[in-house]
Amino acid sequence: MAKKGSKYVCQECGGQSPQWLGKCPHCGRFGTMVEEIDEAPAVKGTISIPASKPTLLKDIEKQHYQRVKTGLNELDTVLGGGIVPYSIVLIGGDPGIGKSTILTQVAGSLSKTEKVLYVSAEESLSHVKLRCDRLNIAGENLTVLCESRLEEIEKVSKDYDYIIVDSIQAIYLSELSSSQGSVAQIKECASRLMRLAKTSKKTVFVIGHVTKDGAIAGPKVLEHIMDTVLYFEGEPQDSLKILRAVKNRFGSAQEVGVFEMTEQGIKEVKDYNGVFMSEERGAQAGSVVTQSISGNRCMPVEIQTLISKTVFGMPRRMPIGVDYNRMVLIIAVLERKAYIPFFNQDVYVNAMGGIKLNEPSSDLAIALSLASAVKNAPVNKGVTAFGELGLTGEVRAVSFAEKRLLNALKLGFKTVVVPKRNYDAVKKYADKIEIIPVSYLSQAIKAVIKDNEKDA
Ligand SMILES: Nc1ncnc2c1ncn2[C@@H]1O[C@H](COP(=O)(O)OP(=O)(O)OP(=O)(O)O)[C@@H](O)[C@H]1O
Ligand SMILES: [Mg+2]
């Protein structure tokens, strides 16, 4: 039982309980209840913007917001074309992925023309200076403040147009007695920063840490408060990093930006076509390229599969960049509808370059990659495929078929396997590229995988 004056609060959803529980009764997550001091909320109406009178839509004055460039084109794209003034943006990501680096670079670039305040609640002034030197940021007009009390940050922020807070988990409001990083603190600090952005006309960038599951640490309400939420993704040992918009009030939430971490900081990768596929594909069995759409761009992504005989009873299924359940489902469809056995095979699937394939349109390429690996028959490097897979083994139509096909054409692919229902939209390109329309998975396998089955 909690001591008098304390309660247990779920760090994921903010749900409360008078006693410790292993599972939060509100959101169902395990191990998220943490003891906090019981206190009356210090500020009423945590999420609020300046109030207005009821106004007719036609009478509302139109405001033309000029988007501001960050100095990194890829970041501008993910933001929907640049920073919208007086908005609040959250960047989340694993430890050490480069959150502070990218925002230091943005601060350096913005400070050439604007007044920028970089608030570091995690590092000392000399550490920030060290990073700026490494990134070659002179930043004559860039102000750095090491402070974790939000009240002080608010006081200092008056003179600046852009405020960067590193990080939301490290700042606190002294009027709340709960500890730094707790749900109450994060919620309150985020709402205060939001009010600062909207009422004092400042543009605010906030860094957020993520939990071990990859979600931004703190209550879900944190993401609701923000105008834009971006996630930095990538394997720690890989220099390639992907910035993904998960929420954007001023642009598409599908956009991704591709970056590379170098000693001189984060560099944008302009030509990402070669990043997610290798030149050697086609020589070995198990690799197939799909055309994946993220926001406005189409990227070729190579899917690689490795099969090995199961040693113990339970075969292993290990996807990287592909959803586990989706992969298991595709394996089941292959077993039942294409009669390819997987029951005694360990399966490892990898989407190259550390990208996460969320689209169902990559199903067909994943299935072809799996079939190619089991049959130990390579798929020609000039072949690409896209299409969604149904449980009965049918290949279903996908959106943006023409865009995907044109991208394949541009990159020099010779053959493209498309869902039959998309064929009408793309048949006009049949003289430039071989188009194989398929209704069922087995047709696609027959078309691109030669049956020279030998032991893998
Ligand atoms: N001298 C260097 N050369 C190359 N890369 C470096 C160098 N110094 C740091 N890095 C890269 O910068 C990364 C750290 O970046 P940064 O501090 O921006 O991460 P972060 O996301 O803010 O981390 P944290 O969550 O710990 O604050 C390191 O993981 C490393 O890859
Ligand atoms: Mg940092």
Summarize the structure.
With 456 residues, this protein is of the alpha/beta class. The chain has helices at residues 73-79, 99-110, 125-134, 150-156, 183-199, 221-225, 324-337, 363-375, 401-410, 423-426, 441-448; strands at residues 6-10, 16-17, 33-37, 88-93, 116-120, 142-146, 162-166, 203-209, 228-233, 240-248, 256-262, 265-268, 287-294, 297-309, 317-320, 345-351, 383-385, 388-389, 395-396, 415-419, 434-438.
Describe the fold and architecture:
The protein is an alpha/beta fold. The chain folds into three domains: 32 residues; 202 residues, Rossmann fold, CATH 3.40.50.300; 162 residues, Ribosomal Protein S5, domain 2 (2-Layer Sandwich), CATH 3.30.230. α10 links the parallel β20 and β21. α7 crosses α8 and α8 crosses α11. 44% of the residues are buried. The model has no long low-confidence stretch (mean pLDDT 87).
CATH architecture of the largest domain: 3-Layer(aba) Sandwich
In DSSP terms, counting alpha (H) and pi (I) runs of 4 or more, how many helices? 11
Spatial gap, N to C terminus: 59 Å
The CATH fourth-level homologous superfamily of the largest domain: P-loop containing nucleotide triphosphate hydrolases
The count of DSSP E runs of length 2 or more, i.e. the number of strands, is 21
Q: What class do helices, strands and sheet pairing give?
A: alpha/beta
In the CATH scheme, what's the topology name of the largest domain?
Answer: Rossmann fold
Ligand roster:
adenosine-5'-triphosphate, magnesium ion
What topology, given as strand order, has the largest sheet? Answer: 6-5-7-8-4-9-10-11-12
Q: What's the average pLDDT?
A: 87
Could you tell me the strand content as a percent range?
Answer: 25-35%
Could you name the ranges where pLDDT drops below 50 across 5 or more consecutive residues? Answer: none
Q: What's the helical proportion of residues?
A: 10-25%
In the CATH scheme, the class of the largest domain would be Alpha Beta
Shape: globular
